[in-house]
Specification:
Blueprint lengths: L13 E2 L2 H11 L6 E5 L7 H4 L6 E4 L3 H10 L5 E4 L19 E6 L5 H9 L7 E7 H8 L9 H9 E9 L4 E2 L6 E8 L10 H11 L7 H4 L6 H6 L13 H15 L1
Parallel strand pairs: 2-3, 2-5, 3-4, 5-6
Antiparallel strand pairs: 1-8, 6-9, 7-9
Helix pairs in contact: 7-10
Function: Specifically dimethylates two adjacent adenosines (A1518 and A1519) in the loop of a conserved hairpin near the 3'-end of 16S rRNA in the 30S particle. May play a critical role in biogenesis of 30S subunits.
Catalytic activity: adenosine(1518)/adenosine(1519) in 16S rRNA + 4 S-adenosyl-L-methionine = N(6)-dimethyladenosine(1518)/N(6)-dimethyladenosine(1519) in 16S rRNA + 4 S-adenosyl-L-homocysteine + 4 H(+)
EC number: 2.1.1.182
Length: 263
């Protein structure tokens, strides 16, 4: 079979460094009985070693040429291939046993990483662990603290849902073709419902999105018509504050306060 040419429209960069692959496998910690779902298996750099630990796994792959390669390389009893876009995939359509851990892993296409992370939030309570390769800059945004220039909507909304670890970086030469950016590995564990205190999570999401829509402006301007200065003071938020200065807890408190006021 001829060599597969990486396609820019799919954001394809294929991992080939065996040391990095082994480090990722250790981060995933595959065990027999796991319900393991890989996003974008590509040329099976992770798929093949993962199948040394578990007898069967699932893969979500959009590129039909790669699907054909995977079908020739692996038996159906080893790999169930879902030939579809991960952005539209229902991750709960794959049943997991009562004692199984549902794990979602993969080298995510960098051109859709943020939308895909937000799509996965929908399934967060039912996924025990997520381990992803992403652009390092994206992971820095995910784990950023308030007042950090990388801190934004992605930081707040993912930190509301997950405990996240930036595990290690992956240099460009670990891929073919080599990307122009450094990559990194993140491991994400869903927070239990008891640790999420927003009264209306949809309201919180919309509030955070609007707050960061013009991050250089003060919140009293970006949230004009939504939040009054008095309501900001009631939540111990300075009227000169900008979105990047507020902690996750402050966003949740402000959202809950606004819901109480309107009730």
């Amino acid at each position: 079979m001829s060599a597969h040419i990486a396609r820019k429209r799919f954001g394809q960069n294929f991992l080939h460094d065996h040391g990095v692959i082994n480090d990722i496998i250790r981060a995933i910690a595959p065990k027999e009985g796991d319900c393991l779902i890989e996003i974008g298996p590509g040329l099976a750099a992770l798929t093949e070693p993962l199948l040394e630990y578990i007898p069967h796994m699932h893969a979500v792959e959009l590129d039909r040429d790669l699907v054909a390669r995977l079908e020739k390389r692996f038996k159906p009893e080893q790999l169930t291939i879902h030939s579809t876009d991960a952005l539209n995939f229902d991750f709960l359509s794959i049943p997991a046993g009562e004692k199984s851990l549902r794990k979602v892993v993969g080298n995510l296409p960098y051109n859709i990483s943020s939308p895909l992370l937000f799509h996965l939030v929908t399934f967060a309570p039912h996924i025990d662990v997520q381990v992803f390769m992403l652009q390092k800059e994206v992971i820095e945004r995910m784990v950023a603290a308030p007042k950090d220039k990388a801190y934004g909507r992605l930081s707040v909304m993912l930190q509301y849902r997950y405990e996240m670890e930036h595990l290690f970086d992956v240099p460009p030469h670990a891929f073919t073709p080599a990307p122009k950016v450094t990559s990194a590995i993140v491991r994400m564990y869903p927070k239990p419902i008891s640790a999420r205190h927003a009264k209306d999570e949809d309201h919180l999401s919309k509030l955070v999105a609007q707050a960061f829509s013009q991050r250089r402006k003060m919140l009293r301007n970006t949230l004009s018509g939504v939040v009054t200065v008095a309501q900001m003071h009631a939540c111990d938020i300075k009227e000169t504050a900008r979105a990047e200065e507020l902690s996750l807890e402050q966003f949740v408190n402000l959202s809950n306060h606004l819901i109480n006021v309107s009730a």
